[in-house]
Amino acid sequence: MDPLETLLHRCHRAELMPLARILQVKVEGMGLTDLARALGITLRRIGSHELANAALRGGHGRAYPDLLVRVAASYGADVPPGADGLPDEPALERAILAGHFTKRWDATDSATRQTLWDEFEIAAPVPDTATHALTLAAERLGGGFQYVLSTTVNVVAEPGGLAIFALLGLSPVGCILRPLMVPLLPLILWWKFRPDERRLGAAVLEVARLRQAVLHRVTIGVVGSPSSGKDAGIKAIFGVDTGNISPIAGSTKEVHIQRAPGATALYLVNTPGMGDVVERVTEEARQVLNHIDVYLYVVNAEGGVQAREKADYDRCKATGKPVLVLINKIDVLRPRDKDKYLADARQKLGAPEDGFMAVAFDPLPELAPGPIGLQPVHDWLVARLVELGKDPAELPALPGVVGAVS
């Protein structure tokens, strides 16, 4: 698959809708693979001369890196090639994002600059220049700077070109121009099918934003029946105290969505199930649920696997996203019963061996001084994020574990 199409294929389908609108691609009836291909081809075509596309490129347009070089140059950016001598696509996109930010900054008044600066969520006075703003934001935000910068993108897809052939119709202007059409036809065709620079620029900015989202945004769904230990798990694995750690059944009655403190774009979705409760959430919450990258499905070892657990696990699996079953409170089981219990639970759920682990997020103090089984969970999450093309550094290090992310 073409690298551009591979990037688009890693996005959620809903995320591709703005790009589809910019490129004027009709998405009805398209699966993710076909949509990614259609968007990639259309982007390359609008950035190329259509006559050259038809004659020389099989209709597919110029290579995406070549288009990036041209767009970057329009912002005054000169990015050296990568180690292999080829254009460095991410570096070019970063230069384009910075150029777009600078252009917006220079074209706005002080009040609008304040709004733009606020998007970085940095407690500092508004810098004097765009260059100072970008430098300061990069220093403060570290590895998350490019993702936050990409969220400041504001593009409007404007149709380019004059409807020249409409003027050649039955209008008075057409009566004057038609006699000139034959000698001017080559020039008219060249002009009519030229690259659409405005849509190309908007589309490239949107692709740059999508690349940063694919790399940095991580949404983890923590699902399980009431009192399964989801809140304790969120605190143990991610260091986030939901303030809702309680042994009382039903203490979590709705979906909770929280960005992990200190993370660029790590979102935790805490939900008691994937059935009716999901249908009752707001549209905003549903959009987040649709963007979950991986699921942690928590089962209470004291309650075991019942019909509800099986149904909710199947719903998680049906999304096509990676799912890890965590049998929590394993410390309460008798040692001689543990292996038999785990084998029975895995068989009832139909979970694969590499997607099934035993943990104790809040074990009895006399049995363990802290959570049990966290490192394998963390390693599984890192591996899945790498497979998804995401930066595993978004995950916080486990408490007391040095260098947990590699």
Task: Give a brief rundown of this model.
The chain has 406 residues and is of the alpha/beta class.
SSE layout:
Elements: H1 3-9, H2 17-23, H3 32-46, H4 50-56, H5 64-74, H6 89-106, H7 110-118, H8 130-141, H9 145-150, H10 164-167, H11 172-177, H12 181-192, H13 197-216, E1 218-224, H14 230-238, E2 256-259, E3 266-271, H15 276-279, H16 283-290, E4 294-300, H17 307-318, E5 323-328, H18 335-349, E6 356-358, H19 374-387
Parallel strand pairs: 1-3, 1-4, 4-5, 5-6
Antiparallel strand pairs: 2-3
Helix pairs in contact: 1-3, 2-13, 5-6, 6-13
What would your notes on this structure say?
The protein is built from 19 helices and 6 strands. It is α/β, with parallel strands linked by helices. It has 2 domains: 175 residues, no CATH class; 178 residues, Rossmann fold, CATH 3.40.50.300. The protein has a 6-stranded mixed sheet with strand order 2-3-1-4-5-6, with helices on both faces. Helix 2 runs antiparallel to helix 13 and helix 5 packs parallel to helix 6. The longest helix is centred in the middle third of the chain and has 20 residues.
